[in-house]
Amino acid sequence: MAALRRVLLALWGLICAGIAALLAIMLVNTSWAESIIHFLDKVALYNMKLTFLEDSGIWMAILIAFVLLVIGIFCLIVALKPKTAIKKLRIAVVDGGAVDISLSAIQNVIKKAALSQPGVESVDTRLLVKNNGLHVLLNITIPDNLSVPEMGNAVRDAVQAQLEAMAGIVPAEVKVIITDVLEKKEEGNSGGNG
């Protein structure tokens, strides 16, 4: 139904813009105006010759053309504007409905699981939903005193366990990339007063 409304709105916008353009042409080109007025006088009850050929209502025609043009452009913009859809993942189908979770909620679960690992300084997540499931890419920063393979495996295992526990999602793939190893700052060395 929404697609039909968008098509009808676009059609209405085109009609309004077309009528506005026709009015503008009629105001400028008298030969076109005469042929169009002759046709419209046969169809409509209004005598348009007064407005376009004898200049008695030219400002009213300009105002009507401008209003129709604005309405037409507005309708076209609304109809052609892409729909913002919340990206989501279906996690369960039950009788009479379904349970979905947004990708932003999944990212929050992943970030919380990764940051729960001691030593993880920062986390950046990227999610891809493909036919074979959810693919998670994690970019993390850790201090320099930790083992990179052990830390990567611990973060991957924590993310997989948290996704399965909270959302019932078993990811197809979890990739952990250590993007930076930070030098650990020594605590308790405040300098000068000792």
Q: Which architecture of the largest domain does the CATH hierarchy give at level 2?
A: 2-Layer Sandwich
Percentage of helical residues? 40-55%
Percent strand equals 15-25%
Number of helices: 6
Number of domains: 2
CATH topology of the largest domain: Alpha-Beta Plaits
Distance between the termini: 75 Å
Give the C-alpha Rg.
32 Å
Largest sheet: 3 strands, mixed
Describe the strand arrangement of the main beta sheet, using strand numbers: 3-4-5
The helix/strand series, from N terminus to C terminus, equals HHHHEEHEEHE
Structural class: alpha+beta
Q: Which quaternary structure do these chains form?
A: single chain
CATH superfamily of the largest domain: Cation efflux protein, cytoplasmic domain
Shape: elongated
Short synopsis of the structure:
The protein is of the alpha+beta class and 194 residues long. 52% of the residues lie in helices and 22% in strands.
Can you describe this structure?
By secondary structure, the chain is an alpha+beta fold. The chain has 2 domains: about 80 residues, no CATH class; about 80 residues, Cation efflux protein, cytoplasmic domain (Alpha-Beta Plaits), CATH 3.30.70. The protein is about 50% helix and about 20% strand. It has a 3-stranded mixed beta sheet, with helices on one face. Strands 1-2 form a two-stranded antiparallel ribbon. The chain is elongated. The mean pLDDT is about 80.
